[in-house]
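Q: Got a minute? One more chain.
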Amino acid sequence: MRDGFVSVAAVTPHVTVAGIKENTEEIKSWMDLANEEKVDVCVFPELCVTGFTCGDLFYSDLLLRQAKEALLELAKYTKNLNGIFFVGLPFSHKGKIYNVAAALNKGEILGLVPKTNLPNYGEFYEARQFTPGKEDMDYIEFGMGQENTVILGTKQYFRCAQLENLVIGAEICEDLWVPNPPSVDMALNGATLIVNLSASDELTGKRTYRRSLVEHQSASLYCGYVYASAGIGESTQDVVYSGHSLICENGVTLMESEPFEEGMVISEIDVNTIAFRRRTMNTFLAREDFGVNESVFELEEKTTELSRFVDPKPFVPSDEKQKSQRCEEILDIQSYGLRKRLAHTGCKTAVIGISGGLDSTLALLVTARAFDLLELDHKGIIAVTMPGFGTTDRTYQNALSMIRELHATLKEVDICPAVLQHFKDIGQNESNHDVTYENSQARERTQILMDIANKENGMVIGTGDLSELALGWATYNGDHMSMYGVNTSVPKTLVRHLVKYYADACCGEALQKVLYDVLDTPVSPELLPPKDGVISQKTEELVGPYELHDFFLYHLVRLGQEPRKIYRLAQIAFEGEYDGETIKKWLKTFLRRFFSQQFKRSCLPDGPKVGTVALSPRGDWRMPSDGDVSLWIEALDCTDV
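A: Always. Here it is, folded:
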């Protein structure tokens, strides 16, 4: 449970219809396996103690009595097991039969949650035998070794004593398929994990629909969802059951069983991140009148081993088709945003500094698309090359080629004479290659762009990306400033894919060749003199790999994770690429820069938000410029490499 990761399992046991003794032993064997696999929450299917397809056999006193005895036996069996177990059975109470989910932990029955919605259409006739669950609580004294009073009722959930953010709500099969599932109220009253004990028959296309339903519920409720379904042991008198089990979190399927296979699927739910996501949404409001009953259960405190995939590039879709679609969407957002700003201001001229690097390349491509949307001549794009002390022939030639291929207007301004005069004015030794040497060039370039924009009644298009803003890797009032920043919420790892997508799908062979060479060029501000004509100042050697920083940024801002957890996940995501010491070094660099450079983000130009992470002070991120990073650094220092 360390870092809020909870191991969960959905089990499809082999069921013998009405074979309670056989089923009890089968369930025990899966409980043992779940315990061996260190599962915290284990979910079995609907009515698995008796089998779902017993029909009118559910009326039998013998069947109901033995089901109750089996429940007590299973509860007792959990005494020496770690975990909370949910099993389904018919339960007779006050002359009625309820289809219930029983929560078992450390030898006790914690509660009985009855099914609320009983389907009585098509192949279903559950209302014939069962009574719908009610909100009013009934208190049941079992005796027979069951010490606590057990609640029967729908308004209850189960809280873990060792992990505050692990709160479980239970619903049963059809409860999920109705317009207002019980899990809605459960989630709005704190349940971070919903379990569903199901017996959903298999039909053509139903598997896809079922998956989308579970994914949607986990997404709309910001929760984990464990769905365990009955399998091939059920009666095939009229329908067939495939045992389709799912584990989903926030709209993503983490694990799914194969069709027509009995067994167990296991994954991990991140309840701390779920709790964080809910805290950031003021529309996720608690139902004040829910009147829920809470039972507390015990789990062993341990480190949950992670089997779930940790994406090293969370901003970049791994599926190629989805990646292309995402790139097109982002380019549209950027270009339509710029289109609106140009139209609103009446500007028919855009001024953009072209270095031959990735960011300015993307900004130029976006500007060209915006001009196409406005049906403006590309000659209105004034693309300015401003060679300085660190400019290499490779980037210079690529800049010229791009401008030519896009039919923009080329303007070249050599900044060296102006910067040397500036050094003389402020008393800077030109052989001293310090931060003043570098930033003077960046500010001179920005001044040139701003003044050309004034002269041409145009707008300066910013090129800086989200990763640079997170690190503060920009010269204040230099490349930090523009009149509209089209890349402001595009991380560096995504910039590369956007340029590649454009090269592959949106341009001719000549421009494609140039774009591929840009992609192959090391990231550099080119502010220090080259060595033998080759770039000497490589950003990632100075500030760290952007793929690591983008990973840190996503997990810190989007998911609200602590440094220890980010470090742990990064070790998994980048296994074989970076060792623990390297990851920790750059994570510490990221944290320090992220906090210390907020002042640059507090006065950002306008720019379009394209994804779930953005740092605009007018939008997603309101952080004090004087925030102290010590708490985060100390937490990381306490983490073993």
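A: Residues 320-345 form the longest helix (26 residues).
Q: Perfect, thanks.
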